[in-house]
Design goal:
Length: about 300
Amino acid sequence: MRSRLLWNVFRGFWARQDAVPARRHISFGNLPLEELKLAENEITSCEKEIAQLKHQIILLLVPSEETDKNDLILEVTAGVGGQEAMLFPSEIFDMYQQYAAFKGWHFETLGYFPSDIGGLRHASASIAGSGAYKHMKFEGGVHRVQRVTMTVTVLPQPTETNPVINPKDLRIDTKRASGAGGQHVNTTDSAVRIVHLPTGIVSECQQERSQLKNKEMAMKKLRAKLQKIQIGTKGRSEKIRTYNFPQNWVTDHRINKSFHDLESFMQGEYLLDELVQSLKDCANYESLVEIISKKV
């Protein structure tokens, strides 16, 4: 079925490739103005279809990653730099929440730890929906604004049975949830902290008033972190993107693409989605080149 679909796409691609030179030849002939305009419109239409067919061919040739259909765990962590460093993660976290709404995904905050000087030290969320991890996986890395940086981590959310966790390997502590400055915001021991003893990985959640709900969320984060170890998910430590608020632009350094409307970009809608699509296309192209180089 896949081979037949690929063959049909190739046939359409070749047909339009042949059509463009023929129409260009016509456009230079002694034709009435109306027919020349019609030929030019047909050329433009064919070129758009060729670009779309190229995209389809790459998608059909490049296999999807096993985790592309998964939901995900998102984490944002402030870097060093005082209040300025704390404000940036808050804006980025809000941007991803708006992007999830734009894509029709379910966004659930798992943990939100504000700074006592304003802004955000660390936050995490679960994002579920069609193609969520496939889109968001390119957001992981170091994001920079002016002199400060922050880190975004994107982990594929495993199924309930993978990885298998032995309850004997866990230490589960509970305490009262606290807000900025350390003040208690709940009168019961609702906050949950889970330690995976064999690896030392820690997962905690205090977002909900229910201890049971916080434990469930903390386990989701723990499973995602353990799966990262098992499948060897590539961690990104390099700077991937710079945001310049005074000059109103944002640049992604991996594909050297810039947008000169940072305010619209931070709304988490069309511009962010356009960048994500460009990153997906670039990754697919690189994968295709790698596949071809192995065959040669």
